[in-house]
């Protein structure tokens, strides 16, 4: 309900590899300049106030949650989480369970996975270095 049908058609027809959030701001600036030239905005001070309000509105919209796109997770945290998740999964997934033994309910065999622990120590050691 913020755009007319013609504006929406023009916005959807715009080819841009980037997000088009800036287009309405550019349209506003162009329309405000046109209104000043046509005398609907009486002087440059009023035009400046209009543009300041637009700038403040854009600033307020950015505070609503648009900045989360720019927050990055440090790669070291991603790698650390991936390593620990991998090894927790390995501790469960590499347990030996022989179905021929007839375990009731097929519980996990809670033996010590020696090679998985060695792999864990090497990877975490490399991670800490």
What does this structure look like?
This protein has 129 residues and is an all-alpha fold. The chain has two domains: 67 residues, no CATH class; 55 residues. It is 60% helix and 0% strand. It has five helices and no strands. Helix 4 runs antiparallel to helix 5. The longest helix has 19 residues. The model has no long low-confidence stretch (mean pLDDT 81). GO terms for molecular function: chloride channel activity. Pfam families: Bestrophin (PF01062). It is found in: Cell membrane; Membrane. It comes from Spizaetus tyrannus. It catalyses: chloride(in) = chloride(out).
Overall SS class: mainly alpha
Number of separate structural domains: 2
How many strands in all?
0
Range of helix content: 55-70%
Oligomeric state of this protein: single chain
Number of helices: 5
Query: Taking all residues together, what is the mean pLDDT?
Result: 81
Low confidence ranges = none
User: Strand percentage, roughly?
Assistant: under 5%
Order of helices and strands: HHHHH
Main β-sheet, in a few words? none
CA radius of gyration is 30 Å
What distance lies between the first and last C-alpha atoms, to the nearest angstrom?
Answer: 56 Å
Shape: elongated
